[in-house]
Amino acid sequence: MCKTCGCSDGAQTRITHLDVSGVAVVDTSGSSGDVLGYAHEHRYGDEAEHNHGVHSHAHGGAGSHLNAHPHVPGDGDAHVVSLEARILDKNDRLAERNRGWLAGRGVFALNLMSSPGAGKTTLLEKTLGELADEFPLAVVEGDQETFHDAERIRKAGCNVVQINTGQGCHLEADMVAQGLQEIDPAAGSIVFIENVGNLVCPALFDLGEAARVVILAVTEGEDKPAKYPHMFHGADLILINKIDLLPYLSFDLERCLGYLHEVAHHAEVLQISAATGAGLEPWFSWLRAHREKALAGS
Ligand SMILES: Nc1nc2c(ncn2[C@@H]2O[C@H](COP(=O)(O)OP(=O)(O)O)[C@@H](O)[C@H]2O)c(=O)[nH]1
Ligand SMILES: [Mg+2]
What we know:
298 residues; alpha/beta; Rossmann fold; 36% helix; globular; binds guanosine-5'-diphosphate
């Protein structure tokens, strides 16, 4: 059991590739690709190779995990630490494999993280509307349960796979590898990986992305970067969302920017409203530039 976020050994990951043309879902477990019933899911945690009891409950990228989950020294502690180190090594190795696979294809993949409800899916909907005519886009959706977000993305006409993590609170590299196989992104694509809503554990798992984008909604309060520094420290780009609500809140923007400077001075910060579209042009430009770079490097 993860002491930080409550992942349990019973977690089961399911991967579902939604069919863009209709409400049906393509079963991802068989080789035929037949269109099956809506609720047909691929439980890859059942496969022998994916020992879910181990990989779904590892927390922390490289050494950060050991800091985040300190162990009380005692009998068996060395064993626990070495087991965790092996699990984390495994995630990092798989993340590197994803990164190489994406780079070889000239695909720009980003890991989009935030608290639940900060506006990740709304931003993706707006972004798909703007960029879909320019180059191929695909989305890997991470949620504990439901196809709600994947449905929203599918309605926008985008290639999307939903990963349901069960009791797991974050995506891991092997889940994303499965998702990438499903969406099979073309050269020059952007792949958006919407992580499970959580400001803690997703920060600790490398998925093989080329960039990390963190959304902070003004409704969450200005102190979240100070309270959850690991998440913001790892970001390449931070989007302060829901700025349309600023007139109605006591959110102290200057203070928030101060905290961000302290924990993530290297990151670019943009102020946006995913709902109204305000401030989104620099975000679109950022995406175009990173996609160009990924394509040029392939
Ligand atoms: N006012 C306002 N609401 C927003 C904005 N972005 C998202 N929302 C709302 O916030 C709620 C959660 O958004 P969603 O995109 O599902 O968040 P997610 O859980 O991070 O994917 C929804 O009701 C959205 O309509 C914004 O910029 N301004
Ligand atoms: Mg969402």
